[in-house]
Amino acid sequence: MTTELAHPPARLLSVGDAAWTVEFGNAIDPVTHGRVLGFSSLLDTLSNEGRLDGVVEWVPTFRSVTVHFDPLRTDAMVLRDLLAELAGKSGSLSAAGCRWRIPVCFDADCAPDLDEVATAKGMARDEVVCLMTETVFIVYMLGFLPGFPYLGGLPEALDMPRLATPRKVVPSRSIAIAGRMCAAYPWESPGGWRLLGRTPVRLFDAANARRPALLAPGDQVVWQAIDRGTFDAMERECAAGRFDLSSLLTEG
Amino acid sequence: MSAVLEIIDAGLAVSVQDRGRTGYRNIGVPVSGALDPVLMAAANALVGNASEAAVLEVGLSGPSLKALSGTVRVGLSGEMGAQLVNTRGQVLKVASWQTATLFPGDVLRIGGVSHGVGYVALSGGVQVAEQLGSRSTYLRAAIGGVQGRAPGVGDRLQCDAVRGDPWLEFRARAPWQHDTGPIRVILGPQEDYFTHEAVANFLSRPYAVTRDMDRMGLRLDGEKLAHNEKGAEIVSDGVAPGTIQVPANGQPIVLMADCQTSGGYPKIATVIRADLPRLAHVRPGDALHFVAVSHTEAAAALRGQVQRLAEWVGTIQSFRPPGVIDEAALYGANLICGVVRGDEWNLHGVNLQSGAPHG
Q: Carboxyltransferase domain: which residues (chain B) (predicted)?
């Protein structure tokens, strides 16, 4: 009961006639996200037990979980009441996913915005790289593009607004920052985040049906600096499908 | 038995689609799928497929398909016609809402869609490989479709060969008609980010369709929808196809099948499932009107649509196209029976008595 009373009740918001958003708060913070993870975990359990008839899938975000359902198979208002009840008792879960150590090349051609960020923050280039590689980032959610992770935990010293004019092309596998967030672009796409490095590792592989996205909400990520030679060698291994992604997992 | 078609003209804005890719939105994979699942089901019904078998969605102009092996039945839905050029050089017109059967060597040239999308169903469905549980194409991440892309010249598409009489065609009694009237929405999830006046404007003023539309979204233009003191940005949360997001400029964007899974603009409302297919057929300059409904009304509208589609499918009948005379069967029948009985041919809807050798 104490955990129930400690939390404000979740809000249930309509996303049309085929989804409900269960909203736990308005902010990006570990407490709100803990409730998102707790609720998602309860849905996992119930779904595995076959007790969420008509629910198609759910999407955890920073602060809410959007539950998509089939309105021909389940009554929207009955599901709403069930979700509200579950949100009241699902409690919190701390981020307890995998811990990854992911190689990143911070050389100039992989990191077109690194010098500008260093200058703006009155730091040396190496100091920025140090902050990036010393931080344990937490995956809050995936969105925007398949496999695109939003990582929290960027030190305040690197807090920079988005580019005034977004790039038309961000190279795939770029590591980028905006505000207090960090992210990695699995795909080449337009984007307004500042590019501080690039990983040789593929972040999304549709052919890997069991785990198409490398990262999942709740995972921890540490960037490990590599030189350009190592980057090139690893990039070739990854492209040839010879790279063992599980070698990036670390203990604790 | 399988059959193979070759793409000899790729058309424009053609993609393989099915019901869409669910189960992966939590890792950022859009649901994709047919922009108009009702018309997809209609095309599939014509060729005897399950309603969600993979089809070719045509956004601008249709492809030209040549049968390489096996007989293939092709069903068309939407405002889109075709020409069948057979191996004897005959050119036969094929209307929408009916089938055409291709023998090896025959070519079907599918024309442009006069507005919105049209669908091309193949007997047995388009059998490209499933990726993440669906054949639907999502171009940006090269998922699904023909190796992650649109079908191109020289690609070969596999489907099933026709079972039963290949000289029969099928057609519906009339074209499918979508509902008319205002587009029905459910308000939220962030209608509380807008002024009362903005919500009232949204539900009373016309919003014009702009040229800025694709499988991801549809930008509208109309009376500015002002955000209240909460502002024009939120911490990103979940969206769905049909969701109407409003950025700082106050002009609404309706998200479509390929939309991202989450977004950071306040969302004033979401188009209900039953009405979302209608937005696949709007043209620049069309004026949209929105009306708010309850979940109960939305569910009734969707059930009504499913019922109406079942009734439409019930009107599909077989016919023998005039001009296509099964010469082999005629001679074969003569060899066996000696005479062709007129009533046999009448059964198939075409009176061939006068033309039959012993009629």
A: 26-309
